[in-house]
Structure prediction request, 204 residues.
Amino acid sequence: MAEDRAKFTRALPAQRREALIRATAACLAERGAAATSVRAVALAAGVSPGLIRHYFGGMDALVAETYRSIGGRVQQALEAALAAAEPAPEAQLRAVVRANFRPPILDPELLATWLAFWSLVRRRPDIKAVHGAIYGAYRARLEALIAAAAAARGLAIEPGPAALALTALLDGLWLELCLDPSTFTAEDAVGIGERWLDGLLAGD
Prediction:
């Protein structure tokens, strides 16, 4: 019993940190970055404002950690989709396309939080650094898959620009679909992404 209590005590700070991160994400989605305050987050998490300073040192660090955490969750969703797909590079690329337009990535709540982070990128170096790490890792993964898929077809494709173009295409479709799902469907978005891949891997 003593060991169980000790484990619970050790886990409690992690649970509190996670509750604060989730509350911050919810506040960012609902209020935007400018109105997400220590008081608002503490109220949403059901804790005292002092815990934010205790665990994160202040709101700036908490917002940056929230971006890092949500970026990690998106990455986990992509990794799960890749693990479920065939191992061939082309199949892996198509799995990335499909995952962008399925829950949990296709989520208007995620969009609202993401937009709040994007609004901070230009004026906060710490958020810019987190943003760069998240998207840098994502594009690097796409570059490796594109290079491998091109090699399998005997094509000379510059993976860097191709990964950048695919990222822009998927982000644009994801953004528009979350903003107004009446314009096209998730399947339409998948079809557009896969046709772009078809053209790339046909050497067009």
In short: The chain has a mean pLDDT of 92. The first helix runs from residue 2 to 31. The domain at 2-201 is CATH 1.10.357.10 (Tetracycline Repressor; domain 2). The chain is about 80% helix and 0% strand.
